[in-house]
Design brief:
about 25% strand, six-stranded antiparallel beta sheet, alpha+beta, about 170 residues, 6 strands
């Protein structure tokens, strides 16, 4: 009888050791940051836990590009909207005429209607026109839904931060 209970205890201990070593897949781990326009989408394929809870994550549809930004202040009137629309149209036109490639001089500046959109390379990476266009579209998409305003933002292409910028 003693050997029967000893076998049961040994079997239980072995089972417990195996069950505790089962890996947890990343999809089972809770994540707190997501794209507000796609609540089931986690920005990029890896995640940096040093994120700021006041930042907004917004994904560009159909791409791996997303932005994180901090809204500074709402702006009245249509000037900011028109300036961003013009900048986006210029970027898309550039890609259509000359193809995708690196943004020259590490940055993009667009001024009109008393507002400016400024971007620059970041994190030892370089922006392409396509990524810049997707980021500009993501900004327009968010602001068309929630209102236009000044902001600071970071541009990600997948897991890499490739740029930063401001709208003023």
């Amino acid at each position: 009888m003693k050997s029967f209970w000893m076998r049961v205890i040994v079997a239980f201990v072995q089972f417990a050791a195996v069950s505790l070593s089962i890996p947890v897949s990343p999809s089972q781990v809770a994540r707190s940051d997501f794209c507000q326009n796609a609540p089931t989408t986690i920005p990029g394929s890896t995640f940096d836990r040093r994120s700021n809870p006041n930042q907004i994550y917004w994904c560009a549809p159909g791409s791996q590009t997303y932005i994180t930004f901090t809204y500074v202040a709402n702006v009245a009137g249509n000037g900011l909207q028109e300036m961003i629309d013009q900048a986006y149209s210029y970027i898309v036109g550039h890609v259509a005429l000359e193809g995708d490639g690196l943004v020259p001089d590490g940055g993009f500046d667009w001024d009109n209607f008393g507002f400016s959109l400024r971007t620059w390379n970041a994190n030892n990476h370089q922006m392409t026109w396509g990524v810049l266009g997707a980021a500009a579209f993501a900004l327009m998409d968010y602001m068309n839904r929630y209102g236009y305003g000044s902001a600071t933002f970071l541009i990600y292409d997948g897991v890499n931060q490739v740029g930063a910028g401001t709208i003023e």
